[in-house]
Amino acid sequence: MATVIIPTPLRKFTGNSSRVTIKANKVSDVVQELTTNFPDLRKHVINSDGKIASFINVFVDNDDIRSLNHEQTEVRENSTISIIPAIAGGMC
Questions:
Q1: Which residues does 70 contact at the CB level (< 8 Å), separation at least 6?
Q2: Does residue 91 surpass a pLDDT of 60?
Q3: What is the pTM of this model?
Q4: Residue-wise pLDDT tens digits, 33-57
Q5: The three-state (H, E, C) secondary structure of the chain, written as one string
Q6: Are 18 and 11 in contact (CB under 8 A)?
Q7: Residues 3, 80 contacting (CB under 8 angstroms)
Q8: Which class would CATH give 2-85?
Q9: Residue 42: is it exposed, middle or buried by C-beta count within 10 angstroms (0-12/13-18/19+)?
Q10: Where are the domains of the chain?
């Protein structure tokens, strides 16, 4: 099963779990399973079209899915998926 690393800002929506294991073949399946298991996470990861929100970066192992097959990127049994929300801030 693939391991999904949950970043600190999103852990409050996963019962404070820092890692979740999911059996899936592609990133879209991982996100679907994750948001089914943790419905409060959905609005923080998925946009109104049902796709991964543009401000969410997803990596399979060390590769950004935007440079691969996006949500159709293959997930292997030993893959590590990192979900990284963009962080805004700085000085005005």
A1: 27
A2: no
A3: 0.86
A4: 999 999 999 999 999 999 999 999 9
A5: CEEEECCHHHHHHCCCCCEEEECCCEHHHHHHHHHHHCHHHHHHHECCCCCECCCEEEEECCEEHHHCCHHHCECCCCCEEEEEECCCCCCC
A6: yes
A7: yes
A8: alpha beta
A9: middle
A10: 2-85
Which two three-digit tokens encode residue 56?
């969410």
Q: How far apart are CA 59 and CA 73, in angstroms?
A: 10
Residue with tokens 């073949």: 25
All residues at 6 or more sequence positions from 10 whose CB lies less than 8 Å from its CB, including other chains: 41, 44, 45, 83, 85
Q: What is the mean pLDDT of residues 10-35?
A: 95
- Average pLDDT value for residue range 4-22: 95
